Amino acid sequence: MAFAAGRTTRLKFGMSVMVLPGRNPVVLAKELATLDRLSGGRLLPAFGLGVADPHEQQAFGVAREERAKRFNEALAVIRACWTQPAVTHHGDFFHYDDLRVLPKPKQTPPDIWLGGIAPSELKRVARLADGWLPSFVTAADVEKGRIEIERVAREHDRII
Predict the structure, then answer these.
(1) What is the spatial distance between Cα 150 and Cα 52, in angstroms, rounded to a whole number?
(2) Most CB contacts within 10 A, which of 71, 106, 127, 141?
(3) What is the DSSP code (8-state) at residue 138?
(4) Overall pTM surpassing 0.85 (yes/no)
């Protein structure tokens, strides 16, 4: 990503769905904010739960049954780090008092896209994301996913 940011001046760039559960959301918020600053505000991060492979889940150290809840909490922490001068958060997985994270991203805040194709993931996109980055899908899957995301987003007074 740093190479793309350094070699271009207008190109938005990001990862093709970074597995969020198992990562430290504060460190990640700081790293991504730094990339966004250095690129002049062109970062477009995308996160996902990870594949349903027990070997990958073992590598991240997060049990399958807790990864969605951990994902949601980590995403809230990242957004708070990017938008609040000081973060106090006490959740099931992360605890911070008066945490101050710098730098803040140039974008206020960057859009966040989410991956996934399962019904629960499409609902998460509709509730929490600014965009959807599906992987390993057909054109028909994309159309069905788009329709579901838009339906759920309307229920939450959102437009994706």
Answers:
(1) 25
(2) 71
(3) -
(4) yes
